[in-house]
Amino acid sequence: MAELLEHLKPLVGEEHIAVREGVVVVSPKNTSEVAAVLGFADRHGVKVRPVGGRTKLGWGAACEAQIELSLLRLNRVVDHPWQDLTCTVQAGCTWQALEDTLARHGQFVALDALWPEKATVGGVCATNDSGALRHRYGSLRDQVLGMTIVLADGTIAKTGGRVVKNVAGYDLPKLMVGSMGTLAVITEVTFRLYSLPLHSRSFTVAADTAAKLAPLMQAIRDSHLAVQVLQMRGDASGFALDVEINAHPDAGQDAMLAEIVVKNGLSLQPGFWLYAERDKLWEHERLILKATIRPNDLASYAQEIVDKDGSFVAQSIGIVYAAFARDETTVRLAEEFRYHLDLQGGTSTVLKGNSEMDPVVGMSNIGPLMQAIKVQFDANNTLNPLVNQTSSQPAI
Amino acid sequence: MLSAQILSEFRQIVGPRGLITAQNQLQTYECDGLTAFREAPAAVLLPETTEQVQAILRLCTRHKVPFVARGAGTGLSGGALPTPGSVVITFSRMTRILNIDYANHQVTVQPGVINANVTAAVAGAGFFYAPDPSSQTVCTLGGNVAENAGGAHCLKYGFTVTHVLEAKVVLPSGELVTLGGKTPDAPGYDLLGVFIGSEGTLGIATEMTLRIVRKPEAVQVLLAAFDSIQAAAQTVSDIIAAGLLPSAMEIMDRLSIVAAEAAVHPHYPMCDGLLIVEVDGPLAEVKLQAAQVLELCRKNGATETRHAVDEADRLLIWKGRKAAFAAAGRLSPNYIVQDGVIPRTALPVVLDKIGQMAKAEKLRVTNVFHAGDGNLHPIVLYNRENPGEEDRAIDLSMRILDLCVETGGSITGEHGVGREKQCSMSYMYAPVDLETMQRVRRAFDPENLANPEKLFPTPRLCGEQSRGHYVPHPVEASGIAEVF
Ligand SMILES: Cc1cc2nc3c(=O)[nH]c(=O)nc-3n(C[C@H](O)[C@H](O)[C@H](O)COP(=O)(O)OP(=O)(O)OC[C@H]3O[C@@H](n4cnc5c(N)ncnc54)[C@H](O)[C@@H]3O)c2cc1C
Ligand SMILES: Cc1cc2nc3c(=O)[nH]c(=O)nc-3n(C[C@H](O)[C@H](O)[C@H](O)COP(=O)(O)OP(=O)(O)OC[C@H]3O[C@@H](n4cnc5c(N)ncnc54)[C@H](O)[C@@H]3O)c2cc1C
Question: Using the beta-carbon criterion (under 8 Å), do B433 and A158 form an inter-chain contact?
């Protein structure tokens, strides 16, 4: 350890190194310092975990590293050419700080990540987080135009670009988003931006079973409404469908929505701030799964979760966040749920709560290819190595 | 040359009708839309199933035979150009739409399906397939996926990559993998995202599941005439800054208006900067947005504005725009179409610079482009008969690309790198950036057999760089589709 500290001091300066619970926390100030630390670690077999806000380090699989590479000093919004609707930001910038900057020009990255005050741009990208805005704007992978990354061996590479249209070469930012810090450290990201919605209005429709909401959800998906969010949620107390419309009030869309709702034998209530619903799942110590299914199978699985004493928040495109209590019975029920899902071509990932469970169920046959990519990017398995595992299996 | 033994093994896989070796027939596959480069393949294979593709690639890998996938051959960057000694694998016998799932807004297709056929298949139910390259009546989805093709409506709807959910891909080893999934956020690395746009260098897609989109309730097209391209470009920026998201925004300069007018008579106002804006969505919203767009056009000094009066008029306006490239032939005996991207706000400066560069070379450049995306298609006009003019035209077109890179843009927005722009890749990316891309390449294709000598600069090819004059693709020449 002492030797490691001696080596790191000249790279980032003594005051930017700390020791926490036996792990050396290193805080470089820029991309080249990140490269220097990584290159050193890679040459000496030292394992590294990049961290941002440390809000969710255990996600996917636990990693064991001697160096924690904190990106928090790389926290600037580098450039916001607002008329081009793009923005370049350093990885350690919190999502909230980014949003605040962009909002000055009435813009945003069309993504609602969890815990924006703490989560960083790099962490959000590494975990491929996204929420209710998925319905209208697509995933984080659709929002990233370019990145600066540092590979395990210290190579600094620029990928993608700063323009919305670019087909020159491989789209490596796509590969980085969701790679859980196992391929490279992200130090800078360029996003495409959208104007903040001007005319959002939320509505809610309640029902006692998911089946009653299913045809309504399909009807709204098939309608001409300018829907921004379409979210189903439920727990022991019942089910609800949240709809957010974003169209000029004069366009008369509220009435159109009301008509569809009534046609389906249900009633429309004015809504509320629906983006916080997903966060609430994390409020108690529970087992949390992210499940993905085809949109028209969503209602039946939603019902199954609640029947098994769980609660959930789901996006109509087919992403479900489900929470179960942690006692033995419910964990068994959750396993059953995952089994049914797998049979229907769905997938599920444990986000939190149970290390005994398979972290991922339903992944297709790409394991060896992922492994080959990992070896190419991080031959010595320096970045985010799995606990108790010497192989180079990616930690996702 | 392939040995008789290998050819017989190929024949066993695809049957005698699935193998072409006759010299005269091989000529058809010598080049794609970039006709300046030609190379006959050693053989052409026409598989009918994924299993056959797997068997072919296993054989290629065993005997180290390079292979090049080919869709309709409409690529404009030489992506489907055969590599010396290679086999071409083409998909004219894999053209089925396998499944339409309206409830989930998904369609599953084979790679040889023609882009426009997807919309044709689902239009009755009120859906469409959004990516709409101008070649859409002929180009295939396999080629679209490989090139991450775009079109006029990408501004709002996104490129091919936003519309492909899953692809079954045969790796060079012959192994079949499923990238992405029919449900969102497939766990693991986003290998689908990397595969799309990889120009056939990572493997062969044999089945794709695509997203289909509900047809908008209403569509409106507006024309606005300006005294300068700069004013038109400023209007585009203002529309974006006002928070509006039209489905398309295109600009044409005077020369291209003249050419389009002569070709298809779209009744454009004659001016130095013509802006075409299309908005779509719910009816009432479209009306409001169209009014806002008009207001912004007037604010920027539009000398004339008008709506499409009906669907026929709307289609005519688009026809004029789409005819602009082919119509360049009316302006000059020869021309080169470029495909570069710049940040939208740099439009006025870059167009000005292009004008100056053209003037210095005593050449004419006409501009017609996807203004909303900053995707330029400058057309360099020249006459081959004048000694040295072709070389100067090629040189100018390449320097325009360099200019795009210098403003923070890209050397290609939709046509791909292929053989044409391999050497410009080094201008856009540093050697380490390219080497990082190669890491992905090696994971998928360790033997370097999938469409080698494309996309990445190679010392051999970049050393002897020279590009021929523009020859219209047969599809273009016959009036089936226009370069857009
Ligand atoms: C599926 C999912 C489940 C989540 N579950 C929880 C939860 O249970 N509790 C909770 O509090 N939050 C949770 N989150 C939210 C998550 O913490 C935030 O969205 C955010 O991604 C974390 O940012 P961070 O800066 O805190 O990253 P960290 O928690 O510091 O890091 C997260 C991961 O990203 C990697 N990483 C971080 N920065 C970089 C970088 N610059 N380059 C490369 N890799 C990097 C880390 O090595 C680690 O693997 C979840 C998010 C997702 C997508
Ligand atoms: C008149 C005209 C107009 C055009 N307009 C546009 C436009 O508006 N927007 C645009 O983006 N492009 C446009 N293009 C370019 C071209 O049409 C597109 O690049 C198209 O996607 C190519 O499709 P294709 O089937 O012809 O592919 P090909 O030219 O046959 O092949 C293109 C590339 O795809 C690879 N490939 C083909 N099939 C597969 C497969 N199954 N798996 C893996 N790789 C494969 C090939 O190896 C090659 O690298 C235009 C071309 C012409 C001639």
Answer: yes
The predicted model scores a pTM of 0.94
- Which residues lie below 8 Å from residue B305, measured CB to CB, with a gap of 6+? B222, B223, B224, B225, B294, B297, B298
Q: Are B166 and B178 in contact, with CB atoms under 8 Å apart? A: yes
Q: How far is the CA of B469 from the centre of ligand 1 (A)?
A: 52
CA of A384 to the centre of ligand 1 (A): 13
The SS3 assignment for B34 reads: coil
Considering only CB atoms, A295 lies closest to which of B104, B162, B216, namely B104
| Contact state of A171 with B194 under an 8 Å Cβ cutoff | yes
Whether ligand 2 lies within 6 angstroms of the CB of B373 is answered as no
The dihedral sign for the CA sequence B178, B179, B180, B185: positive
Expressed in angstroms, the distance from the first to the final Cα of chain B is 38
Cα of A55 from ligand 1 centre, angstroms: 6
Mean pLDDT of all residues in B384-397? 93
pLDDT (tens digit, 9 = 90+) per residue, A6-37?
Answer: 999 999 999 999 998 889 999 999 999 999 99
Taking only the tens place, the pLDDT of each residue in B219-240 is 999 999 999 999 999 999 899 8
Given a cut of 50, whether residue B138 has pLDDT beyond it is yes
pLDDT over 80 (residue A277): yes
DSSP B375-435: EE-EEEEE-TTSTTHHHHHHHHHHHHHHHHHHTT-BS-SSS--TTTTHHHHHHHS-HHHHH
Question: Are A161 and A154 contacting, i.e. CB atoms less than 8 angstroms apart?
Answer: no
pLDDT at B329 over 90: no
Ligand 1: lining residues by beta carbon, under 6 Å: A 49-57, 59, 71, 91, 113-115, 118-120, 122-124, 126-129, 180-181, 185-186, 282, 288, 290, 351-352, 384
Which tokens go with A113?
């990540």
CA of A81 to the centre of ligand 2 (A): 32
pLDDT over 80 (residue A74): yes
pLDDT band at A331 (very low <50, low <70, confident <90, very high): confident
Dist CA A204 CA A201 (whole Å):
10
How many C-beta atoms surround the C-beta of residue A245 within 10 A?
Answer: 24
Q: Output DSSP code: residue B86.
A: P
Per-residue pLDDT, A251: 85
- Is any ligand 2 atom within 6 A of the Cβ of residue B66? no
Note whether A315 and A230 are within 8 A (CB).
yes
Among residues A115, A119, A111, A113, the alpha carbon closest in space to that of A142 is found at A111
H or E, element range at B458: none
Quote the CA–CA distance of B295 and B261 in Å, as a whole number.
26
Please give the interface size between A and B, counted as residue pairs whose CB atoms are below 8 Å apart: 259
- Six-digit token string for A193: 């931006």
Q: Say which residue the tokens 């290193």 belong to.
A: A26
- For ligand 1, atom 26, which residue shows the shortest CA distance? A53
Shortest CA gap B438–chain A (Å): 9
| Contact between A293 and B183 using a beta-carbon 8 Å cutoff | yes
Residue A277 identity (one-letter amino acid): E
In this predicted structure, the answer to whether residue A213 has a pLDDT above a threshold of 50 is yes
Instruction: Report the distance separating Cα B280 and Cα B217, nearest Å.
Output: 7
Taking an 8 Å cut-off on Cβ atoms, the answer to whether A169 and B181 are in contact is: no
Q: Looking at CA atoms only, how far is residue A296 from chain B in angstroms? A: 6
Residue in B closest to A214 by C-alpha: B103
> How close, in Å, is residue A190 to chain B by CA atoms?
12
Contact across the interface for B187 and A155, Cβ inside 8 Å: no
pLDDT reading at B116 higher than 50 = yes
Tell if the CB–CB gap between A377 and B439 is shorter than 8 Å.
yes
B161-212 per-position pLDDT tens digit:
999 999 999 999 999 999 999 999 999 999 999 999 999 999 999 999 999 9
